[in-house]
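Work Package 4 report. The design task specified in the project plan requires that, given a folded chain encoded as structure tokens, an amino acid be chosen for each position. We show below one input record used in the internal validation round.
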């Protein structure tokens, strides 16, 4: 539409300040008159004078009438059309505020071809990582003016993820973010139709779809190297579930760091991310006098390891040093405060949304990119040199 589109209303040439005030005054007088009439009617009817009738919801024509413009101009303001004079935009917005007008999202979607709604597919879990990622995405989307529809799945296998994406497409979302911590979910994202922009979050197969993830290899390497630099001759590892991509990458980073130092990696102990599984592994580690340093794949399992070691009378960090992963809010209050690897979930949410919006605005297909968020090693009091 041309830039002259909003010049059809002669009244639009008035100054913004004067028209805003006039619009506000007119609306106020109208509301006062309506309320006075309602009170009179209530008094005449007897008994209902104290109850004010419900006001009619304002529509676009009401905004246009109060602002002194056409309804086409109001529509252009609502849809952020650039071809509207600043003073016209201000008086339309003033009229919307006065009337408490709320645009109809469905009508706006018909005009713009965009629903301003994004879909998120996530596993139904209370695990700190996926839950924090989901919260960060919601915050970033809200700041960008988008609504979120969340599909929570009990399992993240290929069929479940494809079904969730289909449901979101029926809802008319503009793009989809899939939190893909497990192999099945990452594989499902590869086979999604190209008609809808999709970004994988937390983990994914490089080169298949756009991915935003924390550098798990670097995080695991920094944790392991810290323990080696303190003088420990070897580092044991308590890993997460084998089907989690992040767990696999942390094992890889730990093993590569030991190998580069000329150290034969000891056998891997696996847990399920829970404190209980960490506790069970910790009881086994506590019985081995050769164990002086343990890198645990998340803070919850590290909590279980700490308890098991305390129960066996093993001093931390006097006899055994512990490093976790995630930096959950409680980690600094463990006994002792836990050295851990911090993941910036806020930045992951912002980066994933930014990448998705770029895909949505692109007019041609783009090669998949991978955005990597650097982790941060947080050193507290659960690590120290080995006993002499």
């Amino acid at each position: 539409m041309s830039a002259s589109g909003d010049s059809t209303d002669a009244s639009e040439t008035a100054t913004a300040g004067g028209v805003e005030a006039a619009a506000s005054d007119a609306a106020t007088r109208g509301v006062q008159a309506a309320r006075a009439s309602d009170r009179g009617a209530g008094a005449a009817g007897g008994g209902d004078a104290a109850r004010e009738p419900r006001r009619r919801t304002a529509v676009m024509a009401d905004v246009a009438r109060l602002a002194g413009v056409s309804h086409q101009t109001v529509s252009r303001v609502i849809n952020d059309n650039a071809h509207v004079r600043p003073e016209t935009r201000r008086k339309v917005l003033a009229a919307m505020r006065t009337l408490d007008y709320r645009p109809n999202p469905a009508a706006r979607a018909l005009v713009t071809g965009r629903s301003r709604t994004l879909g998120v597919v996530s596993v139904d879990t209370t695990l700190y990582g996926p839950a924090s990622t989901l919260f960060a995405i919601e915050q970033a989307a809200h700041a960008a003016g988008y609504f979120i529809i969340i599909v929570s799945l009990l399992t993240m296998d290929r069929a479940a993820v494809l079904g969730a994406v289909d449901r979101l497409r029926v809802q008319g979302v503009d793009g989809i973010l899939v939190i893909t911590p497990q192999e099945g979910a990452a594989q499902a994202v590869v086979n999604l139709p190209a008609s809808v922009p999709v970004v994988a979050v937390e983990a994914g197969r490089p080169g298949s779809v756009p991915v935003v993830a924390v550098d798990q290899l670097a995080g695991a390497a920094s944790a392991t190297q810290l323990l080696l630099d303190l003088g420990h001759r070897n580092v044991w590892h308590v890993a997460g579930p084998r089907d989690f991509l992040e767990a696999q990458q942390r094992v890889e980073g730990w093993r590569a760091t030991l190998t580069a130092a000329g150290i034969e990696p000891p056998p891997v102990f696996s847990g399920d991310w829970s404190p209980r599984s960490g506790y069970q592994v910790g009881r086994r580690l506590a019985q081995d006098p050769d164990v002086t340093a343990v890198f645990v794949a998340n803070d919850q399992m590290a909590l279980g390891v700490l308890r098991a070691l305390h129960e066996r009378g093993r001093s931390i960090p006097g006899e055994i040093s512990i490093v976790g992963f995630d930096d959950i809010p409680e980690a600094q209050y463990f006994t002792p405060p836990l050295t851990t690897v911090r993941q910036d979930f806020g930045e992951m949410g912002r980066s994933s949304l930014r990448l998705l919006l770029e895909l949505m605005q692109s007019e041609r297909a783009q090669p998949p990119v991978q955005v990597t968020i650097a982790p941060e090693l947080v050193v507290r009091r659960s690590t120290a040199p080995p006993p002499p």
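The mean pLDDT is 82. Validation will be extended to a larger panel in the next phase.
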